[in-house]
Structure formats: C-alpha cells, structure tokens
Design a protein that fits this description.
mainly alpha, 40% helix
Length: 67
C-alpha cells in the first residue's frame, strides 16, 4: 500500500542498482504495508511488519555488519 514510493519506482530500481554495484541485497516485500510501516506501533504491540522485519534486520546486521 505504499502510495509515497511504489516499489517499481524506487525499491526495485535501487535493489537492481545495488546488485550491479556488487552489494548484498535482500528484497523483502511487505504485502499491504504502508510506506512508513515501521511507525505503525512498537514491536511489542504486535505490529506484524515490525515483528517480521525486526528479526530479519537483526539477523542481517549481525551476519553482514558484525553488529
């Protein structure tokens, strides 16, 4: 539901450009999510987008950025 920056106009093009530049890219579509999905409540309030992406993001950061 991203009415600010539709994926085909931004996310997909950015992901392709990053791949061409040699970056590790993991595109994770969030069906039905608004543009500012991360502001839709706190993780412990059950925001399904934060619950899903929070775990994935932490795993990604720990494995690639040694965070």
């Amino acid at each position: 539901r991203d009415d600010i920056s539709p994926p085909e106009d931004h996310s997909l093009k950015l992901a392709d450009a990053l791949k061409v530049a040699g970056a590790l890219v993991r595109l994770v579509p969030l069906e039905g999510a608004p543009h500012f999905w991360y502001m839709e409540g706190e993780v412990d309030e059950g925001n399904p987008y934060n619950v899903l992406m929070g775990k994935r993001l932490l795993t990604f950061l720990r494995s690639t950025a040694k965070w």
